[in-house]
Amino acid sequence: MEHILILNIGSSSIKYNLFKGEQTALKGYLERVTDYGKGIKQIIAEINKKGLSVDAIGHRVVHGGTHQESAPLDTKKVKELENISELAPLHNIPEVKGIKICMKLFKVPQVAVFDTAFHQTMPEKAYTYAIPAALAAKYKIKRYGFHGTSHNYVAHEAARLTGKPLEKAKIITCHLGNGCSITAINHGHSIDTSMGFTPLEGLVMGTRSGDIDPAIIPFIQQKEKLSHKQAEEMLNKKSGLLGLCGKKDMRDIHAARATDSKAKLAHDVFCYRLTKYIGAYIAAMNGVDAIVFTGGIGENAWWVREDVLENFSHIGLRLNKKANRNNETKISSFASRVRLFVIPTNEELMMAREVRKTLRDRV
C-alpha cells in the first residue's frame, strides 16, 4: 500500500494530497467545484500525468457520530453516514457525495477518517448536556468535538518532542484558526474538548460566537424578527471576532488594536476565553505537562500566546519571549515546569496513517 490519496471534500472545493509513504507525492486544491465527478476525474488525470497510482483512499468526514475510530467504507457504511448527515449537513452531505463518486471511479479500499472520532473517549460527565435525557437519547444530542485529527497529530508530536510517551502525558492542544478548539488529552485520550454538538460551541472564533447564554438566541429572534435559519447564520457567520470588531483576521485585529477600541476588545475577549479553557483543563487533568498551539493563529500570532500564557506563572510556566516572538517550535524557557510548543498541524499525514492502520487491522 504505497500510495494513499487523502481527500477533503467541501461544499464547493476539493483538497487532495497523495502520499507515498509519509511523503507528499502530489497535492492540490480545486475551488468553485460544482460537479464533484468532474473534479475527481481532474485529480485522477493529474495523478496519471505524474505516472503515479492510488492504492487506497482516505476521506475526511467531519461528523462520525459515535464512531471511535476510522472505518472502512462500503455501501452499508455510506448509508449509515447519510443517516447522520443532519448532524453536520454543511460538511457531511458533500463528503458523502464525494465518497459515492470515488467508489464508482476507484477500485481500491477506501476509509472514512472522522474529525469526531478522537473525542469519543470523553467520559460521560464531559459529553452529557443537562437537558431532558429522553430528548438527548432520541436525537443523539451530546458533545462530539471536532478538529480531532489535528489535536491527535500535534499531541503525538508534542510527546515526541518531550521524550515522554503520550500514554503517560497530560497535554492541552489549542487549534486556533478561523475555527478554534482546545482539547485536554490525558494519557493519550481526549477527556474534554471545547466544541460540542456542533462546531459552534467553545472558544471565540473568526465568525462563530462560541459559548453564549442560550437564552440570548430566542431573545434576539423575538426582537429582530429573525427566523431559525437567520439566527443560526448570525451565530455561525456574523459573530465571533467579526461580530465584535468587523474584522475576522487576527493579523488585522493586532494591527488595529492600538487605535481601535473594538479591535482591542475582540483581542481581549478571544484571549480571555482561551485562558479560561486552559485553566479549566489543567484542573480537569490535575496538572499539565505540555501546552501546544497550532492552526493559523496558534502558529503565527505570538501576541495571543504571550497574552494568554502570562496568566499561568503561578503553576511554574515560563515563556521564552524571544522564541515565542520568532514562532519557534519550543517556546518555554529552560526553567518552565510546563513545556510549550508551536507545532504546525498535518491532518493529511495523520489521515494517511489512519488509513494504513485501519486497513492493516482489517487484514
Structural features:
about 375 residues, alpha/beta, Nucleotidyltransferase, domain 5, 2 domains, six-stranded mixed beta sheet, about 45% helix
Describe this structure in words.
The chain is an alpha/beta fold. The protein has two domains: 3-114, Nucleotidyltransferase, domain 5, CATH 3.30.420.40; 163-342, Nucleotidyltransferase, domain 5. It has helices at residues 36-49, 75-83, 89-105, 124-127, 133-138, 148-162, 216-224, 228-237, 240-245, 250-256, 261-285, 295-300, 302-309, 321-325, 347-362, and strands at residues 3-9, 14-20, 23-30, 56-61, 71-72, 110-114, 170-176, 180-186, 189-193, 290-294, 339-342. The strands form two sheets. Strands 3-2-1-4-6-5 form a six-stranded mixed β-sheet, with helices on both faces. Helix 1 packs across helix 3 (89-105), helix 10 (250-256) packs across helix 11 (261-285) and helix 11 crosses helix 13. It is globular, with a radius of gyration of 21 Å. The two termini are 13 Å apart. The mean pLDDT is 96.
